[in-house]
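Bumping my old thread because nobody answered last time. Still need a sequence for this structure:
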């Protein structure tokens, strides 16, 4: 997982907003700049899947272990397994929240910069990066609801900045996120 993260971080740094804008000046307008956008999107997809499975599987296993322990008495091995699962879930949750927060922060910072100057480069970069942003937001739709609720204070300001995005697919993903995660939190 660390190797995947390092590949993902490399492609993300190569595809950073400033690098992407700089490379766009050296490539013709008909084709996007040569970069690792596809690799970053694929890596993002795999990384999110791994982290989501680790956080959701641990929750399911913990609930099943409690049911078994109640009916058969407490087994020392199942307690140790539960402790390992809780550690794995904690690490996966930390990485998932950090990764989603980082992508949302970058997107919302660039999005808030578009109102000040209607620079064509910024809009083009947002357009090229939108599949990655959409993937992360859609991944947050599937995020364990307890984790989402726990970290809502971190996510909400970043998500609300994306509501006014120029990219319709980003706005659609934010709408899906609101309907799937936030409506369950309303009284």
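Sorry it took so long. Here it is:
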């Amino acid at each position: 997982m660390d190797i995947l993260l390092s590949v993902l971080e490399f492609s993300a740094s190569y595809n950073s907003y400033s690098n992407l804008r700089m490379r766009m000046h050296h490539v013709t307008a008909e084709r996007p700049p040569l970069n690792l956008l596809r690799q970053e999107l694929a890596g993002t997809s795999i990384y999110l899947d791994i982290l989501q499975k680790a956080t959701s599987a641990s929750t399911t296993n913990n609930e099943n272990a409690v049911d078994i322990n109640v009916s058969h008495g407490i087994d020392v091995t199942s307690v140790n397994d539960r402790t390992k699962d809780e550690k794995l879930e904690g690490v996966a949750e930390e990485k998932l929240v950090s990764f989603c927060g980082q992508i949302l922060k970058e997107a919302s910072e660039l999005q808030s910069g578009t109102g000040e100057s209607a620079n064509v480069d910024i809009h083009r970069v947002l357009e090229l990066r939108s599949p990655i942003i959409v993937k992360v937001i859609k991944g947050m739709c599937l995020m364990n609801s307890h984790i989402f609720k726990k970290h809502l204070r971190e996510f909400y300001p970043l998500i609300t900045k994306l509501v006014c995005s120029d990219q319709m697919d980003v706005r659609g993903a934010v709408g899906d996120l609101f309907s799937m995660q936030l409506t369950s939190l309303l009284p």
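The helical segments are 2-14, 17-24, 37-72, 76-114, 120-141, 145-150, 152-162, 168-182. Let me know if any region looks off to you.
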